[in-house]
## 1
Amino acid sequence: MTATRPAEGGTTAPPRRGLVEQHRRLPRVAFPALFLLGVLVGVTLSAVTGFSIVLAAIYGVVLGILAVYAVSRVVEGSRKSFDRLVTCVVTTAFAVAMVPLVSLVWTVLSRGLKRLDGEFFNSSMLGIVGEGGGAYHAIFGTLVITGITALISVPIGLLTAIYLVEYGRGRLKKAITFLVDVMTGIPSIVAGLFAFALFALFFGPGVRMGIMGAVALSVLMIPVVVRSSEEVLKLVPNELREAAYALGVPKWRTIIKIVIPTAMAGLATGVTLAVARVVGETAPLLITVGIINGTNLDPFDGRMATLPVFAYYQLTQPGFPPEYAIDRAWTAALILIILVMALNVVGRLISRFFAPKTGR
Amino acid sequence: MTITSAPPEPPRPKRRIGDRVFAGSATGAGVLILLVLAGVAIFLISEAWPAVTAPAGDIPGGDGLSGYIAPLIFGTLVAAVIALVVATPLAVAIALYITYYAPRRLAATMGYVIDLLAAIPSVVYGFWGIATLAPALVPFYVWAEDHLGFIPLFAGPASATGRTMLTAGIMLAVMILPIISAISREVFGQAPALHREAALALGATRCEMIRMAVLPYGKSGVIGGAMLGLGRALGETLAIAIVLSASGGITFNLISSSNPSTIAANIALQFPESTGLDVNTLIASGLALFVITLAVNMLARWIVNRRADFSGAN
């Protein structure tokens, strides 16, 4: 006879107590409530020791997480409680990352809105001392240079990624993969030095042209496009390619009709991040394009103004009285952010409309 | 029984014109990258050469080239290391949160918000760093000097403006955070659904599922992302040029107002006013930066290659 046999001898023995305990759960509201309780205790604690928002937040979150973990550990066991701990930590990490973003946007908005007026978009800095003036020349300079950069970089980057994923074999593929990685690490300032030297070779030292900036920015943008596109193209399942080959589709049509549409969302994200990186890149433009006060939109003729360089010089060399230039700098920063956000939205829309619907 | 004849030779795939053009242009693009990179390297070396061969006294600072570059290299590395240490765990956690914890409806928006952080230009980060972040960190530096002063990192005296190496590092961390997390997110999201569901079906909690099915799959992506982040941190120029109060030599003291500059920031600040040998010296320091990033990338590539088995296309 075994000891586990139920005393009554019935056929429907109730499950043992230990099994029931493993599935014991608290109601769904319990853990948020516990967390809030911990936060409250933390805030009180910080109030006792001298209140500051930062300390209150730190104490509160730590105590809240501890409360959730402790109760879950007692009630639900170690595995479940560890899961809850990780959930809390991961959520907190996301919240922490939001702090600088909110703070940055708030700072730029509150300081930049002051000069966000018609004059800022309509006038350049030609003949402006002190009040007034705008960034018309810089905004269009940035658009021209970034446009040329994208025209150079996206085809080269995308084709290289396709080469690496679809065609590349042997030593050349290895070399290109490796060197694209190296190129990713090229600091923007070095890319600027490169473009400067390249053009100084033909036009003599002291040359400044918009196209130099575009070349420098392309050196930065191409590897970003390649890396992100490659990563995404690699994730396209081989089964899709094989299915296309089995139907007799030539390789190049497979790539254009199957591989790229499948990866489109990721490609758009990659290109968007690349453009976003390039739009705000200041250092290479500082060296290669310089700054002028008037409007010059010909990238093959002399200095141009660009928005990031404009913002930088307005902030660091405001002249006298400084406050007007500093206001202009913040507004330029605000416009840069808006420009970049618009680019992001466009990228999202592209990926939404062109990506195929997947099963999952 | 029939005699088995040799199977007919498989038809050779036709090389269509479209294929040839496409393959050719793709290869050409790849080769172009090699040429560009070779151009960068050749130029840097040739332009740095006058500074390498110049007598020590002619180099700015009078201590020779290595005496000029060493503090800059040190500053660059310290800032980048702080950034990477702060950003990587945070970025991985954020990527996990967005892919597996956030409410499905909100996840896309949250991803977009984090991408926004990547989109913000470096010069704007510099503005924010000097106007908001640095003053906000001053109380912490004062506290750290009082209570943690026995650690050399916090020896002080605490900077009154907050324009310290630690501020620069934290700012860099914010800047590289979205890069690391975007790549990690992409890879975590692609972890095979069957593996994940199998783990859950076996009774794993969500955290155990992530540890067993997602992290092994996503490891190379995370390292790749961290590498991209490090690349940006090492080469970040204007944000640091604006924020860091650079006036000192090599020091591990992260909260004082005399810090070593970084190579890139130093070039940006000095280049417009430099001529002659000074330009060559700056380019030599740029070459040093180039070599450092090369070493970092080689190491990272080696790590990623060990993990190549987890790639999706095999």
Note: The CA atoms of residues 236 and 259 of chain A lie 7 Å apart.
## 2
Amino acid sequence: MSSHASQPASGGCCPHAAKACAAPSVYGMIAEFDVVGDVRHAAEQARKAGYTKMDVHSSFPIHGIDEALGIKPTILPWIVLCMGLVGMTTGILLTTYCMADWIPHPSWLVENFKGYRFIISGKPMLSIPAYIPPIFELTIMFSAYTAVFGMFLLNRLPTLSHPLFSSARFRRATQDRFFLAIEAEDKQFDAKQTESFLQGLHGVLAVETILD
Amino acid sequence: MSHPTSQATAVLTERDNIGDDPRFRAPLVTGVNDFTSVTDIVASIAERKPNLYWWIAFGGAATLCGFFFSLLGYLVLTGIGIWGNNQPVAWAFDIINFVFWIGIGHAGTLISAVLFLFRQNWRTSINRFAEAMTIFAVCCAGIFPALHVGRPWLAYWLFPIPNQMAMWAQYRSPLLWDVFAVSTYASVSLFFWYAGMVPDFATLRDRSKSKIGQFAYGLFSLGWNGSARHWHRFEKAYLILCGLCTPLVFSVHSVVSFDFATAQLPGWHTTIFPPYFVAGAIYGGFAMVLTLAIPCREWFGMKDLITMRHIQNMARVMLATGLMVCYAYAMEFFVAWYSGAHFEHSLFLNRPFGNHRWGFWAMFLLNCSGPQLLWFKWARNNLWVIMACAMCVNAGMWFERYVIIATSLSRDALPSSWAQFSPTWVDLSLLTGSFGLFFTLFLLFLKFLPTIALSEIKTVMPQAHEHAHGHAHLHGHDRAEEKH
């Protein structure tokens, strides 16, 4: 909510100066499509036109959209690998520590570790083969939790509010329509030019300006 | 409202997608459906008031579930002496039910993860179902070992928590491996299921007319907006999860089988147990998926999405895994004979002819004979026959665990400690009641959650592929086009 008096209150947006504009600021502009191919071509054309801060919204993953938008491969698999190794290390340390009857330590260090000297099924104190199932399960547990939570965090979810949710039209993005959204923060963004660019795309059904 | 290409889609009847002609790719969604109508079919189940079938089923299931929890209260207050367990049959219905339910859970992960890695696109119609079934089956399974410990309020001793007694969980014991395997499996399956549902919760949020619906679905959807960047990470996470769940699902029932195989008891101490248990789990799990899917598609108008082809594919998997189970039965007898071990001989003669012979013959007839009908095309085309076969397997797999546990324990290597086992009314009621819990949870799932993975089923529709303008296009061609 701005108190800038010199700007018209009902303008929606002001051309060429989105950042300086103080009246209801603009989040961006969306174009609606109903054919998968059209939105993909639209994304390609927008990228050719020099737009970078843009996204496609759809109810399912569209094949080829990553290339069209220039989305770089996610770092997620590497994070999962690291956490998997952390899980494996945790498993090895946990099992060997819990079952140990002796812990290596420098002679000057006072220790009162007695261990849990309980032999079962004739296995030695350090019986790595018997520890493999817990180690394996902990590896999987750490990796899988990381895959799920890491994915949501990298996506910056949960974020329950988003400017796009103010559009009634956009509700169909999770159902049967496809949207190309160009943000006002994009250097190329210009209310008039971007609107005419979006209107000119093949198969476009509607173009709407989204307020922030 | 429909999209231009969908007009050209040929009208397909239910029967049209069950052909075996390799020149034509069978459609996975039949009827004249586009993204709009598929969304409507699935979302409307959660949106409209449930029909009479649902209320009848829910009434029955919830009553049974209430009975189950009252019995649990009685059991915890009284002690497990009200079970029929004795020495030497210290593992009885509690462990039988545990293995039975955890086995059913396996089909869910198999359908979700293993079939995904093998690019079996038909899984998209049934994976949500099967995953839900996994979660609920694991809920039922988890209750039994927790009660089996005798003092369930001390069940936290199973976990490696530092404590004043200076005692640790025993990592050399397969029973502890089970704790790790089952808790990993339960939580990973839950997150996998939930993560897959997030985009569909967003669909329900955006369609919901009620304030409560918008709030609840909005909360669970975490603010999902279908961004291509989000989908990119989502797909990657999904692939990783499938890769992780595949070894996990095989490990879980292998570990369950170690509970038996590492013991010295005749009939348990065999190396065939891990693959035999996994095959049996998938067999029983697919039977349960069929048991749930066949009535659901009839009653909730999902015949275009869960088509006859899906049912037939599941019937085929059930037949194949059933044969593996029969092979394992035969191999157990062969190894018992070939081992030359006196106690093994005696036990395997005892199974078909001894004190629990009715259990053995029930298992043999239900698991090895009934489902063989599915070799025939007419049988695979008849939903009643498929349903009957699935029911045979549901019961047969319970008897399999009964035979493994009760016969071996009641006739161990020391004849002086032999004893008979007979279940009490509490044993039988807890088994029946656990179905009440399972079906209550499943019916609530049917009513409130996205029953079919909308975002996944849309990707296997021809409209999701740019150049499929109604004519028979092969997937490989589409993929090649996308590379440009």
Note: Chain B touches chain A through 77 residues (CB under 8 Å).
